[in-house]
């Protein structure tokens, strides 16, 4: 067991968590599963925990949010410990790097610039600072630095935002809607599986662009649509169960009618 005592609840929260992770990763006395992990094996859990944080916020489940934020924090500590074990960097390096970045990107708070700016101006300033950081990192292309590992829908929006900064964008959402109709027509006309996937991807990409123009977060919109579908389908199951039946013992026409009933009930609630 390392000198620090990870089971000591009197220690401050972050110190205790880091001590626990060091103990779990100890080559001689740690947990075999934790010792075997690397960046790649942990990355899917990191993404999953971030989505569970978003889910708790969506549900306004604040007790759940506390736990989910802890799960996400564990992921950061885990990655930092793996890096430390390999002599790459440590947790303090991670914390200091983001602290330096936040100070540099907020000169109106930590520097001499005036705080008397609109939110829009602050956003423009933020983007200018990020552009300078990308240039310093030799990211000269407009789309450089948009992470490949992002969910595809989120990455589509980020790519489109980057292109829009240099003028490659439709000025109005109506033009995006026209493009949406065009892509839907091309999908209908596609008759080869390879082309179907390509045209479907084009349609999704335009939908992401439309969301950006309408200032809608497509990930959040789809999460809410998923939640609505789940809620209404569960109501269909409940109505059928009251008759001693399951959806498999029903048909589309009946379930569609029950769907409309569930929809009407929600609107009248």
UniProtKB/TrEMBL annotation:
Protein's UniProt keywords contain Hydrolase? yes
- For the keyword Hydrolase, the answer is yes
Family, as annotated: Belongs to the nucleoside triphosphate pyrophosphohydrolase family.
The record's Gene Ontology biological-process terms are: dATP catabolic process; dGTP catabolic process; dTTP catabolic process; dUTP catabolic process; response to stress; TTP catabolic process; UTP catabolic process
Molecular function per GO: ATP diphosphatase activity
From the record, what ranges are coiled-coil? none
Q: Which residues form the signal peptide?
A: none
The NTP pyrophosphohydrolase MazG-like domain is annotated at: 37-110, 177-233
Write down the superkingdom of origin. Answer: Bacteria
**SUPFAM superfamilies hit by this protein:** all-alpha NTP pyrophosphatases (SSF101386)
Which reaction does this enzyme catalyse, per its entry?
A: ATP + H2O = AMP + diphosphate + H(+)
Keywords assigned by UniProt, alphabetized: Hydrolase
Q: What is its EC number?
A: 3.6.1.8
Q: What is this protein called?
A: Nucleoside triphosphate pyrophosphohydrolase
Database matches in InterPro entries:
MazG-like_dom (IPR004518), NTP-PPase_MazG-like_C (IPR048011), NTP-PPase_MazG-like_N (IPR048015), NTP_PyrPHydrolase_MazG (IPR011551)
